[in-house]
Amino acid sequence: MATFARTNPLTIATHLIKLLTRSSDSRSLSGIVSTDLITSHTQKWMQDTSTKSPMELINEVPPIKVEGRIFACEGDNNPALGHPIELICLDKEDPAVCKYCGLRYVQDHHH
């Protein structure tokens, strides 16, 4: 173990990646590197053209009208399925987008 403490961290990481990519079980890297060498999350999603990407699906949801200038997005009514609270300012005319879930919000003007 003392050998690793004095070894360059980049060398250790390179050795670990080489060791893991030699494994016959492609799940050993949790989808980061597969037998097709898919290296990005987007490429992994875009492989299957028969289904829509998550961004395409969320863009199909129309902007949600809310009262007030500030809205707190939680992603879902169920806290276990949501995300951290994101306070969204609705002062602009264009829909504001939650950075966590991609839902769009607009201020509902009652005038």
Automatic annotation (TrEMBL):
User: What Gene Ontology terms for biological process does this UniProt record contain?
Assistant: mitochondrial electron transport, NADH to ubiquinone
Fetch the Pfam families from UniProt.
zf-CHCC (PF10276)
> Signal peptide position in this chain?
none
Annotated Zinc finger CHCC-type domain ranges read: 68-105
User: What GO cellular-component annotations does this UniProt entry give?
Assistant: mitochondrion
Q: Which domain of life is it from?
A: Eukaryota
Q: InterPro entries from the entry?
A: Znf_CHCC
Q: Kindly give the PANTHER family that the UniProt entry links to this protein.
A: NADH DEHYDROGENASE [UBIQUINONE] IRON-SULFUR PROTEIN 6, MITOCHONDRIAL, NADH-UBIQUINONE OXIDOREDUCTASE 13 KD-A SUBUNIT
| Protein's name according to its UniProt entry | NADH dehydrogenase [ubiquinone] iron-sulfur protein 6, mitochondrial
Name the species this protein comes from: Sesamum indicum
